[in-house]
Amino acid sequence: MRLAVLFFIVSGVLIAGCQHTKEGTFAIDQISISDEGLTNGQNYYVVAPLQWDGPARAELTNIGIVNEAGEPINASEGIEASFYVGADTKQTGVFRREEIGEKQQVEGYELTEEQTLIMQVKVTNTTEGENRKLSLTYSSGGEEYEKLLEWEPISDLNSSAMMNSLPPST
Q: For the chain, which residues make up each domain, given as ranges?
């Protein structure tokens, strides 16, 4: 009898210890934007690997740029940004062009271990803002979560009259 009780106690501890939390973690590669900044009004794509470690059934609901108070940054502050997700095989970097190829909407995207984050961005009279963060909102198990990540392309966003480091699209 004691052996059976001990078995159930040990089994319960092992099962509880093996259950994963519904929260996960993101990792994103740092991509550097030129010191000269981005040309005012020009369309750019910043593409970086995005890794997910968490529940298998997790969906993105939103990605955006926020300030240190957690408030969204938008066009009134000189930054127009839209976010998409792409295949993990997509070429990464900063590209000055009007189209980036195949991409998926963020809302409802089911996270996998590896994918790429695609930021389409246009800046107007913008200076670097080290307090900007990337906000990723996702749902898992009926709960919604937000993760804030420091990402160099967001804090380095600034505009200039000329951008010499990126070749024009072909």
A: 26-160
**How would you list the strands of the sheet with 133-140, edge to edge?**
58-66, 133-140, 143-149
Provide the CB-side half-sphere exposure for 73 (13 A, CA): 28
CATH topology of domain 26-160: Immunoglobulin-like (2.60.40)
Burial class (CB in 10 A: 0-12, 13-18, 19+), 160: middle
Give the Cα separation of 78 and 159 in Å (integer): 9
* Alpha-carbon separation of residue 158 from 55, 64, 77, 125, 138 (angstroms): 36, 17, 11, 7, 28
Q: What is the pLDDT of residue 45?
A: 95
Reported confidence tier of residue 2, pLDDT bands at 50, 70, 90 = low
